[in-house]
Specification:
The protein is an alpha+beta fold. The protein is built from four helices and seven strands. It has a seven-stranded antiparallel beta sheet.
Length: 133
């Protein structure tokens, strides 16, 4: 159960980091209405596909973006067509491994942690989650 508790804290840390990134990017790019708008801005070449903004660097990829904080913590997120932020167990695990004090958790523990965080998190399609609301 202790491992699931650690995985739960990792998931909550990912959500907090994603919220901090959203806030920082909106400050840095005032035209940004939501984090998913980074994709459109990069595709239209109004911003670079890879850049350093404030305390984060970002790299746009496929349906999402990878953000790296000044301390090396990585938050990778994909975006749905409606702009909602989605992530899977791989992205959560990678976040944990990138922390200054790395946390390696199993997919099983992450699955249990995500389930324990419903209704905060919603499974939008098998294996993919978003923050509800």
């Amino acid at each position: 159960m202790e491992r699931v508790g650690a995985a739960r804290e990792l998931v909550l840390g990912y959500v907090r980091a994603l919220n901090a990134i959203d806030e920082a990017m909106r400050v840095a790019i005032p035209s940004l209405e939501r984090l998913a708008d980074v994709l459109g801005l990069a595709r239209s070449r109004r911003i670079s596909r890879s850049e350093h903004i404030g305390t984060y660097s970002y790299t746009v990829h496929g349906a999402g973006c990878r953000f790296v904080s000044g301390n090396g913590t990585e938050v990778d997120v994909d975006f749905e067509a409606d702009g909602s932020e989605v992530f899977d167990l791989w992205r959560l695990r990678w976040y944990g491994l990138s922390l200054p004090d790395p946390l390696d958790v199993t997919d099983e523990d992450l699955r249990s942690a995500v389930r324990s965080l419903q209704p905060l998190l919603a499974e939008v399609r098998p294996g993919w989650f978003s923050v509800a609301g």
